[in-house]
């Protein structure tokens, strides 16, 4: 496979927006533009790159909403959008990412509740939503994803009972504290 069409990483566009020409690379499987001081919105057209398996846009200054079009990336295994300035709710369309193993949305300004459809991500191993302003309760079905190894939800505005994690045999890390108004005890019993 031609690496020039498959992988984009270590690109240094010297600040500014995500380069529009990337949205034309239909065979692209790996996109890493982390730590590039990128700003502005995430282009919804990234959702047209059906071959994408890994997207890392962490540690930039990206703003606006997470495009629901990213839910069309049926091969996506890893989505890293942490440490940006993203706002608004988590799109429920991300629940359509059936191959997703890692979802990193921490340290943004995301609001609203965790979408129930994220509970359909049966391959999910890492869920990092910490340091946002998410509200509501922690959905019980989310903590029934049997492959979860790490769940980080601290630093939000959750309320209500914390679901049990007894069924998560591979879980190594679950953090739902630091100011959240949740009650109950998580654990394996």
UniProtKB/TrEMBL annotation:
Main location: other
PROSITE patterns hit by this protein: LRR
Residue ranges constituting the Disease resistance R13L4/SHOC-2-like LRR domain according to the UniProt record: 20-147
Compartment(s) of residence: Cell envelope
SUPFAM superfamilies associated with the record: L domain-like
UniProt keywords, alphabetically: Leucine-rich repeat, Repeat
Keyword ATP-binding: no
A Pfam family recorded for this sequence: LRR_14
PANTHER family: OS06G0587000 PROTEIN (PTHR48059:SF30), POLYGALACTURONASE INHIBITOR 1 (PTHR48059)
Protein name as it appears in the record: Hypothetical leucine rich repeat protein
Organism from which the protein derives: Ectocarpus siliculosus
């Amino acid at each position: 496979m031609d690496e020039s069409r498959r992988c984009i990483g270590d690109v240094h566009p010297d600040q500014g927006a995500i380069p529009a020409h990337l949205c034309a690379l239909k065979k692209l499987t790996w996109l890493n533009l982390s730590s590039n001081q990128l700003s502005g919105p995430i282009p919804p057209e990234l959702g047209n790159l059906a071959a994408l398996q890994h997207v890392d846009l962490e540690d930039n200054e990206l703003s606006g909403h997470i495009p629901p079009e990213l839910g069309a990336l049926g091969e996506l295994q890893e989505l890293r959008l942490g440490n940006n300035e993203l706002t608004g709710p988590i799109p429920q369309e991300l629940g359509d990412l059936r191959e997703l193993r890692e979802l990193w949305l921490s340290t943004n300004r995301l609001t609203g509740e965790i979408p129930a459809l994220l509970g359909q991500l049966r391959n999910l191993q890492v869920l990092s939503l910490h340091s946002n302003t998410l509200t509501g309760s922690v959905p019980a079905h989310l903590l029934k994803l049997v492959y979860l190894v790490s769940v980080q939800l601290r630093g939000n505005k959750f309320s209500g009972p914390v679901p049990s994690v007894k069924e998560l045999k591979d879980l190594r890390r679950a953090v739902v504290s630091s100011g959240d108004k949740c009650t109950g005890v998580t654990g394996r019993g």
